[in-house]
Amino acid sequence: AMLDGLRQAATDQKVALEVRSQQSPSLAASLIDLKEAVAAKPYGIVATVPNEEFRAELEVAKNAGIRIITIGAPMRDSDAITDLFVGMDPDEAGKIAATTLLSGIRERGLESGIAGEFSVLCLDESDGRDAGQLRKCQGADAALRQAGGGRVVELSVDGTNVDFASMNVATHVETSEIPV
Q1: CB 39: neighbour CB atoms within 10 A?
Q2: Under a CB-based contact definition with an 8 Å cutoff, are residues 94 and 140 in contact?
Q3: Collapsing DSSP states into helix, strand and coil, what is residue 152?
Q4: Residues 59-96 pLDDT 10s
Q5: pLDDT (tens digit, 9 = 90+) per residue, 8-31?
């Protein structure tokens, strides 16, 4: 949907849009795409900031006068390089998700059916490659603990292999104390 919106905006504004990498399964390949984009000296770059290497490359772009728009989950210190951020801070996203879950449990009167502390599975579909995913799970865990109920169990899976990821989640749920 975002890419469609970018293409429509480029058409409407009569500007050139070049997409270097839509969603490469490899961070190394995506970083090469980003470096090539910076070397081309475009007016602007829309990118995610999954790790420090991407942040450093975007800082090079920013220093060269290229406008930077980051999407998804920001790194903690990415504000200094970003002209515009589109998305939600993962800590906040995790807190909102956990608060919504607890609210649903309380609204349905299910608290009495949950004996003691319960676990919530937080799925990291980047298989540990995206620091924002970990922050999302940490935010959820902090909110649950602060509210006095539950804890978060993080599970990293490779989101590019749906069958294996599904099997991994099912196995984890069957062999842990996570309620289904």
Answers
A1: 11
A2: yes
A3: strand
A4: 999 999 998 888 775 665 666 777 777 777 777 777 77
A5: 888 888 888 887 765 556 778 888
